[in-house]
Amino acid sequence: MRKKTKSNKYTIYCPQCHRRVAEWDGKYSSNVIAGCRKCHKKIVYHTDTGVTDIKPWEPRRTASGMTYL
Description:
mainly beta
């Protein structure tokens, strides 16, 4: 979900909890990746199609094999 503001920026919201997660100014064509602080998911906004996806965070791993949560 996105909403255009007065300064020609797009505000990107989390589709699950409807919280504001990022802003996109429309200049760059790369995907906007942000994290929702409420539901702890990775939000990916595809700038070419305007679709917002929810993806889980990948677990962080170290060289020793230890996994951080």
